[in-house]
Each structure stands twice: as structure tokens, then as C-alpha cells.
Design brief:
Elements (H helix, E strand, L loop, with lengths): L1 H14 L16 E4 L2 E5 L12 H14 L7 H5 L2 H14 L3 E5 L2 H12 L5 E5 L4 H10 L2 E5 L4 H9 L6 E6 L11 H11 L2 E5 L14 H5 L6 E6 L9 E5 L1 H10 L1 H4 L6 H15 L2 H17 L6 E2 L6 E7 L1 H13 L2 E2 L2 E2 L9 E6 L6 H15 L1
Parallel strand pairs: 2-12, 4-5, 4-6, 6-7, 7-8
Antiparallel strand pairs: 1-2, 3-9, 8-9, 10-11, 11-14, 13-14
Helix pairs in contact: 2-12, 4-12, 5-6, 5-10, 7-8, 13-15
Length: about 375
């Protein structure tokens, strides 16, 4: 029976410390959560500004549901594109500094849609080896030729571009790498695009709302702008709601409306969510104090974890990975924290390369200095 083979595969994963299981939250997302009935101090959410349970977003969602109902009822191109969606797309384009924007259900679907719509057979996609799984799957589905370069290695990317003469060229990269927390060299990537007549797709899932003036993201953080850049960001992390958007030149957005399969062939997100994101954009724009507090927490954590037997990987962002190495050791460290009432997820292959299992510590502006001190103390205790 095929079920027996599946069970064997799961047991093999468990033996390697790779089996994944879900936990159930009984509380709203915040630094202090209840999981399976027990209270924890959480350091594994992407709610970087602490907006996921903000009363203004809750009220905006309720008002949006009262006005538009719950479900969109149809795809955007049929009858599911509401005035709330339209207003949000205009606001997101302005916020990202682009002529137009398009809403997607998730960042995964946005990346699939963009890459598949813009390149195909005869074209080439150039991808950082540490890109998110959605970008990897997108280039596989596009049927374009794939050329992957070493993480942030601009010399190797330049050589690959030199070797490619025909077809469209698309460079795809995370802006903030989700498991390492470091940044892509976006100005250098843009310079290569200009030299080799290529597009640049920037996945700013972990930079939007956090980096740059008024939280406008990694492009603003780096001080770059170009018609060549196609900008994708998610709305379920720093924005605290759900969904994603792509911002680009109008001709690119029109192309996506017609050819991005993950946009054309799916039901639109509930309009009430668009109402909540519109409110979130206001909070993000006014959130300089939140971002400053987050930067202070990052500095506090990095200072407090110096000298541990595990390496804190280089990162200036809210993603602070503690490199453990062995899968079982990472799980044991995560469990040790959990026994002390602290929730930090152990990240293992294939999400990260073999031998680099880690704790992915994520900070939020909703954390306090006391919260961070509690985590620092627990890790020093476990290191003894």
C-alpha cells in the first residue's frame, strides 16, 4: 500500500530531526501568546511592527466586512474586484513609488505569477541560491533557463549574464533573506541589470514596513529606483494583515492582469482585508518610533548574545538566526527554551542548507527590553 511508504518516509524524517508538526495558538498574534493551552513569550513571528492585533486594524476589518461582506465571491477579472481593492492598489503603488500595483492572495502566488508571466522558453532567470522557495518554484514553472549564483556573489552573476546573449533576462532575489536576515546588494544588482538589459524582481517580504523612510521598504533603504525593478511585498508580516502586491510600470501590471495565472485563475481576497491594509499603511507611515524601538531591540539582543557557543549570524534586521548546525541539537535548544516559557522555532533542512540548522529569532516592535533580556538569560543558561 502507498500509505506504508508514506509512513516510512515520515519515520525517516523524524529520525533525522526533520519532521514538521503544527502547534495551535489560542490567542491573537503578539509577543505573549498561548500555544496548546500554555503561555509563552514568542520570538518566532513575522509581525515585525506588532500590528497584527492592532485595534485600528481590527476596527477597519470589521467596518470593511460590514460594508463589503465576507467573501469576494469571484476572481478579480470576473466580478470580485471591489472598490476597496482598487483603492488599496492605488495606495500601495504610491507608497512603493511605482506607477501601478496589483494585489495577490499571497507572496507565493505573486512570485509565481510574475515570473511565469514575464519569462518562458528561450529566456533566462538568474537567482540567488538562498532565495525563498516561492521564487525557486516560480522559475521552475516558467520553463525559462535557470542560472543560480552563489549567495550575493555579484562577480559570479556578472559572469553568468555575460554568457547569456538571447532572450529576456530576469534577476530574482529576496531583499531581506528570510532565514539569514541579511540584505541583497540591490544597487549592485540594479547596475548589472542596466549593463545587461535585464529586469530585477525584488521580493521584499521582510523589508516592507520595516526598512527605509516611513517603512517604504528595501528600495527606499538603498535609495534606488528604476523602471527595471519589479517590486513584490507581502501584507501579512510587518503590515499585520494578509496578502501581497506587485508594484511596477503600468505595462508590467497590465501584462500580469492578462498573463499571471495565479492572479487570473483565483478568487479575489476578501475586500475587508483591503480595508484593513489601507489602515495599516497609515500606521506604517507613522511608525518611525516603532522602527527605532525595533532597532534598539536588535542591538540589545546582539550585544547580549555575544560569547555564546552558538554563532549569531550577521544581520541588522529583525531576523536574528542563531546557528546551531545539527538538526537534533537545534530541536533540543528550541525545546529547552520552550520549557522556560519561550517560543523560538528550530529551522532545519531543506529550508536551510544541510548542517546549518538554527533558531530563527525574530523581534517585533511589540517586544520590550525585558522580553529580550529574558531570552538572553535563557540562552546563556542553556549554553552552560
Amino acid at each position: 500500500m502507498p500509505f506504508f511508504e508514506l509512513q516510512q518516509e515520515l519515520e525517516a524524517r523524524a529520525a533525522q530531526g526533520l519532521l514538521r508538526q503544527r502547534r495551535t495558538l489560542d490567542s491573537p498574534q503578539s509577543p505573549h501568546i498561548v500555544v496548546d493551552g500554555k503561555p509563552y513569550l514568542s520570538f518566532c513571528s513575522n509581525d515585525y511592527l506588532g500590528l497584527a492585533n492592532h485595534p485600528r486594524l481590527v476596527a477597519a476589518l470589521q467596518q470593511g466586512a460590514a460594508q463589503y461582506g465576507v467573501g469576494a465571491g469571484a476572481a478579480h477579472l470576473v466580478s470580485g474586484h471591489s472598490a476597496a481593492h482598487h483603492r488599496l492598489e492605488q495606495a500601495l503603488a504610491a507608497f512603493a513609488g511605482k506607477p501601478a500595483a496589483l494585489l495577490f492572495s499571497t507572496g507565493y502566488m505573486a512570485n509565481l505569477g510574475v515570473v511565469q508571466a514575464l519569462v518562458g522558453k528561450g529566456d533566462t532567470v538568474f537567482a540567488d541560491r538562498l532565495n525563498h522557495a516561492s521564487l525557486n518554484d516560480a522559475m521552475l514553472l516558467s520553463r525559462a533557463e535557470m542560472k543560480r549564483y552563489r549567495h550575493n556573489d555579484m562577480a559570479q552573476l556578472a559572469a553568468l549574464l555575460e554568457q547569456t546573449q538571447a532572450g529576456r533576462k530576469l534577476i530574482i532575489t529576496d531583499a531581506v533573506f528570510s532565514m539569514d536576515g541579511d540584505l541583497a546588494p540591490l544597487p549592485e544588482l540594479l547596475a548589472l541589470c542596466e549593463r545587461h538589459d535585464a529586469w530585477l524582481l525584488v521580493d521584499d517580504a521582510h523589508g516592507f514596513g520595516v526598512l527605509g523612510e516611513q517603512g517604504r521598504g528595501s528600495l527606499a533603504h538603498c535609495g534606488i529606483a528604476s523602471e527595471r525593478i519589479i517590486y513584490m511585498a507581502t501584507l501579512g508580516k510587518a503590515a499585520g494583515v494578509f496578502g501581497a502586491f506587485v508594484a511596477a510600470e503600468q505595462v508590467v501590471i497590465d501584462t500580469l492582469v492578462n498573463h499571471a495565472r495565479s492572479y487570473v485563475y483565483t478568487t479575489a481576497t476578501p475586500p475587508a482585508l483591503a480595508s484593513a491594509v489601507l489602515e495599516s499603511l497609515k500606521l506604517i507611515g507613522q511608525g518611525d518610533a516603532l522602527r527605532e524601538h525595533l532597532r534598539n531591540l536588535i542591538a540589545q539582543l546582539r550585544s547580549g548574545l555575544q560569547g555564546l557557543r552558538w554563532e549569531l549570524m550577521p544581520s541588522d534586521t529583525a531576523i536574528q538566526p542563531l546557528l546551531v548546525g545539527d538538526n537534533q541539537a537545534a530541536l533540543a535548544l528550541s525545546e529547552g527554551l520552550r520549557e522556560r516559557g519561550i517560543w523560538v522555532a528550530a529551522i532545519r533542512p531543506p529550508t536551510v542548507p544541510q548542517g546549518t540548522a538554527r533558531l530563527r529569532i525574530t523581534l517585533s516592535a511589540a517586544h520590550t527590553g525585558s522580553d529580550v533580556e529574558q531570552l538572553i538569560g535563557a540562552l546563556h543558561e542553556l549554553a552552560q
